[in-house]
Write a structure and sequence with these properties.
By secondary structure, this protein is mostly helical. About 55% of the residues lie in helices and about 5% in strands.
Length: about 575
Amino acid sequence: MDILIDKYITGLYQQMEDEVIADIARRVKKTGRYTETAELMAKSMHEQGYSTAKIQAEVMKKLNADAGYQKAVAENTKAHKAEIQKIIEETVKEAKEAGKTLIAEAGNMAWNNDLSMWQQYGEDLTKPNSLSKLIKAFQAQTAGALKNLTKTTGFKNTLLGTTGVMNAYQRELDLALLKVATGTFSYDQAVNDCIHRLAQSGLRAIDYASGRTYQLDTAARMCVRTGLSQLSGKIMEENLKQSGQDLVITSQHMGSRPEHVPWQNKVFSYSGKNKKYPDFFKETGYGTAGGLKGVNCTHDFYPFWEGASVIPDDIQEPPPKTINGKEYTYYQTNQQQRRMERNIRATKRELEAQRNLGGDTTQLKAKLKKQMSDYRAFSKAAGLRVKDNRLRMPSGTSNLSRTKATKYYNSLVKSNSHDIIKSTPKEPVIGNDNFRITKSKFLKAAYEDIKELRYSLSNLDVRIWYKAKDADIINIIDKTLPIEEQAKQACELRNTYRTQARELMRDQEKRKSLDRDHPNVEFEDLVKDKMERKGMTREEALRDTISTSGKTNKKVDNSLGLE
């Protein structure tokens, strides 16, 4: 194996091991015993080749556990198991009858079902989630690169570059995929960990090269879900090649996309050489974004033994239903449910933004309550299961700058209503009929944030803003630069603010006279003037340029009542 590939996958496994130890330790600390989940996690790690003794030792080390505590944990675990043994014995008989079905539906990966079929027809295949098997499938999925396992196409290239952020994003997705593929973490836990860690780094939304933008939680779940499906497909391909099996059958489910319906529950030739059956790749679009195992596709494909396997009956979808006066096909009910889930998450983002800003959340809470009620009522009427996991919006993981609440309160309010922001003695407002902003925010606002106030402000309001900008120049210039570069920055900033302030003036005739009589002064002209008029050396003139950059003309200030 290539050294770089080896290091990358080894690093992912090491990070996964660290997180497993930490998670098991957290569960033991909380309950005083090894929980069922903790034991399952340890079992999955053992199946990857890790020593159970090492896992237990590392957990106790994490807890700083002495011999007495370790003994107590062991006894508590044993007592708990004895307690529930009777319950298990009472239900095991019924469970055996449905055992195969339960096992087949228990896992997230397609191979849970694949192995039973291969073994049924005499094929001896190694366990798919062993390290070597997974690495081989990972490499097939990523054309040998073993990075960006989920094959996300996120992040538009910019002049500043996105390499660092992209690598971090892809690594977290790869780790989440590995956690679920090995059976060590549940899908929800792995993806939630991924989302929270990326959110802590400041990432909130993913810009795709296609031009679409997704919130972080949506993008991560979509990528990992699709990556898991594609990985199971690569493992199936390896199994087909290993056994020489050529025929495959696609799965079927209700509510399929219309373009997927023609090829679901059909038998195909994987190689395309068997003339009796259609070509697998051509017919299903396998390997493409819109085809089998493409973005958000939940179809699978399995081996098909001619003469032994049976093609299931085609699924009969429920007839269209009329809900709230509108007719929906089964596919349309699923799409409407997804749409309602997105709207609920969007409202939750608005609520989070409003809380962060200290705003009134009464109306948003009422809106969310109604959305939740409508969602549950629609799901019940459509015969669909309510999917609570799709309604979650993890706090601190969204780009709240895109919310209406943040745009409203962050000086980016646009409205034709005079009542959008009301003046009070404590919080006066500046603005026009289309844009209103509180005075305190106006003084701190960059020109880009208030440019819709152009040609509408009084001379007094403009002067107040200009004085605030000038006063801040000394805090903005880069003090690490040589004194001449600092002076240049001060001069350029002052010229910029002067021009922007004049753009805000309602009295543009006055502005024309100011441009004529008091134009911006070029840096070298300013320094030369100070040297000649004040008898300064160049060094003194440079320092004077910096120190006076925050001062405005007292005569003008006095005329407006500002001094």
